[in-house]
Each structure stands twice: as structure tokens, then as C-alpha cells.
Amino acid sequence: MEKKFLVAIDAEACIACGLCAEIAPKIFEPSEQMISQVLENAEIDPEILLKAARSCPTKAITVTDADTGNQLWPE
Q1: CA 26, 54, 62, 59: dihedral to nearest 10 degrees?
Q2: Are 37 and 74 in contact (CB under 8 A)?
Q3: Does residue 26 carry a pLDDT above 80?
Q4: What gap in Å lies between CA 25 and CA 69, rounded to an integer?
Q5: DSSP letter string over 8-60?
């Protein structure tokens, strides 16, 4: 079974550095306002997702396990 994640981006904290989209282009892309957003129907590889989230200098990306509700990042 494919693991599901809830990914939230704090638009006020995002500084549009682009690291998340560079690391995980199948998950993140910049919006018209240059704030990162999660692609619809993104192919989420958990390892790449967490690597991208951890790369965010402002910790604007929150990753939660959808099944357990445990927040995986930030810890």
C-alpha cells in the first residue's frame, strides 16, 4: 500500500528560494506569486519529500503521515 502524506506550506514563511522544487520537481513547483506549492497528483517518494522539506531554510514545509497523524517534519 502506498503511504500517504499531508504536505503544508506556510506561505508567509516561504521565501521562494526554490530548493524544494529543485530537489523534488515531481512534488513542488512555484506558484504565480513565487511561493512553493504542492503539485496536484504528485508522485511522492517519501525520501525525496523529506529531503526537500529539510532543505527549506525557513522550515515552511510541514510533512505529516496521513495515516497516523504524526508530524514527520519539522520534528
Answers
A1: -120
A2: no
A3: yes
A4: 25
A5: EE-TTT-----HHHHH-TTTEEE-TTS-EEEPTT----HHHHHHHHHH-TT--
Pairing assessment for the beta strands 36-38 and 28-30 based on DSSP bridges: antiparallel
Instruction: Quote the pTM value.
Output: 0.91
> Are 30 and 38 in contact, with CB atoms under 8 Å apart?
no
pLDDT in tens, 7-24: 999 999 999 999 999 999
CA dihedral 7, 65, 42, 26 (to 10 degrees): 80
* Residue indicated by cell numbers 515531481: 26
Question: What is the C-alpha separation between 35 and 37, in angstroms, rounded?
Answer: 6
The C-alpha atoms of residue 10 and residue 43 are separated, in whole angstroms, by: 21
